[in-house]
C-alpha cells in the first residue's frame, strides 16, 4: 500500500513538471482552481466518510471490539474533517487576498517554462543530487565505522560485548567527520544550485536561443568544476557554521525537556529560531550569489555583495513576485500531497478491518511533500535565477541602442505591467556592461 502510493506521488510530481513545461502560462490559474477543487472536495469527502462511518457505528451489526475500532475511526475522521475545513477556509482566504499579485508571476513562469523546453534535463537534477548524497552518506557511514573500531578493544566480562576505547585525537576526528558530513552535504546541494544557475544564465543572456550550446547543463557543470568550486566551498561552509550551533542548541533543548528551568528552555528555543532564520537568509543569499557568480564570474564575496545590493534595490519586486511565485509552487506541493492523501483515504476506506489509519497516511504525506519539494524546488530555483537575471538586465540596460534588453518578450510585457502597477525602475547603475560568462 505505502509503496504504491509513494510510486504514484513520484509519477504525479513528474506530471507536474510536464505541466510546468508545456502550459506554464496557464499554470498559475490551473493550480489555483485545482487546489480550490481539491481542498473543498477533499473536505467534503472527509465529512461524507465521517457521516457514513457514524451511521455504521450506530448499527448493531458489529461486535463490541468492532464498535471500539469503529468509534476510534469515527473520532479520527471527525478530527481530520475539522482540520481540513479549517485549512481550506484559511487557504481560500489567502488565495483571495493574493489574487491580484498572482497575475504578476505569469510572465516569470512562462519564461521558466521556456527554460525547461530548451533545457529538459533540468528535471533530472534532483535525481543526480540525491544519488550523490546517497553515495556520500554511504561513504561517510563506512568511514565512521572504521573510526569507531580504531581504538583499543575492551571486553565487558559481564555482557561479553567488545567495545573500543578511542584515544583523544581519534575522538576529535569523529567530530571533524561530523562537520564534514554537514559541509559536504551542503556543498553537493550548492553544486546543484550553481549548475542550474549557470545553465539558466546561459539561456537568459543568449539573444539568439538557437545558438545555445548543445549541452548547457554539462557545460555549466564543467565551468563550475573548473572555476567555482571555491565559491561553493565558501558558501556551504558559511551555512555549516550556522547549522552546527543550531543543531547543538536543538540537542540541548531536547535534553532540557521535562526540566523545571522553563526560562532556559525558552532562551534555547529562541536561539534555535534565530539561527534557523539566519540560516534561511544566508541560504537565499548564497543562491543569489551563485547566480551572480554565473553571470559575472566573480568571487563569492563580490558576488554576494552584488546580489545583496540588487535584491535591496528590487525589494518590492522580490516581495511581490518572488514570494508569490514560491506560494504558487507551494500550492503545487499541496496539490500533490492532497492527491496522495486522498488516494490513501480511498484505499483505506475499502479496508475497514485495517485499524490504524494515521501512521501510513502520515508517512506517505510526509514523503509526498519531500518528493514534491525536490522536483518543484528546481522550478523554484529557475524562477529565482530568472528574476535575478531580469533585475541585472534592467539595471544595466534600458532598451536603447547599444543597451538592448536580453529579456524575453513575456518579461518585456511584465515590465509594462510593472509600470502600470506604479513600480519604479531601479537606478540604471553606472552604465557598465556585464562581464561575459567564462566559456
From TrEMBL:
UniProt cross-references to InterPro entries, sorted A to Z: Choline_transptr-like
Pfam families per UniProt: Choline_transpo
CC annotations in GO: plasma membrane
Keyword field: Membrane, Transmembrane, Transmembrane helix
UniProt keyword Membrane, yes or no: yes
Major subcellular location class: membrane
Compartmental location: Cell membrane; Membrane
Membrane topology (UniProt): Multi-pass membrane protein
Chain segments annotated as transmembrane: 6-23, 28-50, 77-98, 119-147, 174-205, 327-348, 354-376
GO MF terms, alphabetically ordered: transmembrane transporter activity
Keyword Translocase applies: no
Coiled-coil stretches: none
Homology family: Belongs to the CTL (choline transporter-like) family.
Entry function: Choline transporter.
The protein's name in its UniProt record: Choline transporter-like protein
Organism annotation: Oreochromis niloticus
Taxonomic classification: Eukaryota, Metazoa, Chordata, Craniata, Vertebrata
